Amino acid sequence: MLSTRQNRLDPSEIDRKVLDQLVAALSQPGHATLIDPVGQRTELPEPVYQHLLRVLEMMRKGRAIIMLPEDETFTTQAAANYLGVSRQHLVDLLERGEIPFHKVGSHRRVHFKDLLKYEKSRDHERRSTLDRLAQQVEAAGKYESHYTGNE
Predict the structure, then answer these.
(1) Cross-strand bridge partners of residue 103
(2) Residue-range definition of the domain harbouring residue 79
(3) Are residues 132 and 79 located together in one domain of the fold?
């Protein structure tokens, strides 16, 4: 497992004016270019550029950033905390095969990428269920919208 201390970007460690300047510079049209100590220029690829801008914007808002590789492993408690469920509910999901896991000794471990996949699937299912429910309520004439679009 990675040390959170090594992978945490704390905005309090960078002067607010510097963060403002970085966001302003990266928000300009065009691509950011890195210049190494010998003057060689390397343009940042678009995905890296966009990610760096998002990181800096979050830090400017005072939010710390923690970087985790997708293959990072979580304990069952850490995985449950991430998903916002009880540890027992997570263990039940693991035992039903809804989230893959492996064992280290007698302890279950879950890859972060598998948590992300489950979370995406769960959220999609929730949205679909709410959409179907809203359609049923509307079809039954039980919903009146007073929104006129002029508000």
Answers:
(1) 108
(2) 73-139
(3) yes
> Are residues 93 and 40 part of one domain?
no
Same domain, 33 and 48: yes
**The dihedral of CA 29, 31, 32, 33: what is its sign?**
negative
Digit-coded pLDDT (tens) for 57-83: 999 999 999 888 889 999 999 999 999
User: Is the same domain home to 78 and 57?
Assistant: no
- Report pLDDT digits (tens) over 118-139: 999 999 999 999 999 988 988 8
Q: Could you tell me the pLDDT band of residue 9, with boundaries at 50, 70 and 90?
A: confident
Q: Does 108 reside within a domain?
A: yes
Amino acid letter, residue 13: E
DSSP tag of 107: E
Q: 134 Cβ partners below 8 Å, 6+ apart?
A: 143
**Rounded to an integer, what distance in angstroms lies between the CA atom of residue 92 and that of residue 97?**
9
